[in-house]
Amino acid sequence: MRQHQSCIRVLAPFCVLAIFLLLTLTASYKPVVVIHGLFDSPSDFQLLLEFINETHPGTNVTVVDLFDRTESLKPLWVQVEGFRQAIYPIMQNAVDGVHLICYSQGGLICRALIATTPDHNVDTFISLSSPQMGQYGDTKYLKWLFPDHMKSNLYRLCYTHMGQDLSICNYWNDPHHRDLYLNNSNFLALLNDERLHPNASAWKRNLLRIRKLVLIGGPDDGVIMPWESSLFAFYDDNETVRDMTSQPVYLLDTFGLKTLHARDDIVFYTMPGVSHTNWHSNRTVYDTCIAKWLT
């Protein structure tokens, strides 16, 4: 009995220390906010939640339940404001900042939210297969939404007031009708500061508050076109993909991309063999591209 009590006295400090360390490590993980894409809802991200809980136990993860399914077709500025109201209290309660995981269309929503929120505390912005330089391609989504249009003539709808009320038209970037895009895109052209506006300097300053920008995409995506748009590359007028450093928005550093790159704060991941709807449920993608940034 005495020997047993002696063992307890010896081990007790180590147990207390182990519990303290466990609580400390658990508490060290910043909150994670997940923003879904076109036609998605929080239920689609169950595997991602399980991955995070397994590798970073105790992390406060929020998959924002707004603009689900067909509601995701609402204009992106409307969605940005709605997501801001939902996320801002999480930011205020996170002394050390938050991480954003933003999938597909959600990546553009997150970039706009960061750019237009002066006091945000986003640490790492993970853009998961998002058309950051826009979309131009015939996909199943496009054929379902616009059965009477192909990529070559969708500009006739998208670059109108009515078209700009649809989220996908907010980032439709037709390389053959550049002038119409610049004059009529009320979201992406503004966000990229390709269309001049008085808030450009402030938006650039706000974006540069982030610590890291993680860009993830791959050649077998099948929806984002060109898929390299997820890495800030895009078509020229011959539909040849030019990489990020060849884009005018980079060369002119219109919204901070070149500055982030010069700071060595952009991380690129190209993952083959992943289709668009599987990015957030693929364990290899999570382990390779996401997990290390959620500290």
From TrEMBL:
Reactions catalysed according to its record: S-hexadecanoyl-N-acetylcysteamine + H2O = N-acetylcysteamine + hexadecanoate + H(+)
Role: Catalyzes the cleavage of thioester bonds from S-palmitoyl-CoA or S-palmitoyl-N-acetylcysteamine (unbranched structures) but does not have activity against palmitoylcysteine or palmitoylated proteins, branched structures or bulky head groups. Conversely, hydrolyzes both long and short chain fatty acyl-CoA substrate.
EC number: 3.1.2.2
Alphabetized GO MF terms: palmitoyl hydrolase activity; thiolester hydrolase activity
First-level EC class: hydrolase
Record organism: Varanus komodoensis (Komodo dragon)
Family classification: Belongs to the palmitoyl-protein thioesterase family.
Record carries keyword Glycoprotein: yes
A GO cellular component annotation in the UniProt record: lysosome
Record-linked InterPro entries: AB_hydrolase_fold
Keywords: Glycoprotein, Hydrolase, Lysosome, Signal
PANTHER family: LYSOSOMAL THIOESTERASE PPT2, PALMITOYL-PROTEIN THIOESTERASE/DOLICHYLDIPHOSPHATASE 1
UniProt keyword Magnesium, yes or no: no
Full protein name: palmitoyl-CoA hydrolase
Compartment list: Lysosome
SUPFAM superfamilies: alpha/beta-Hydrolases
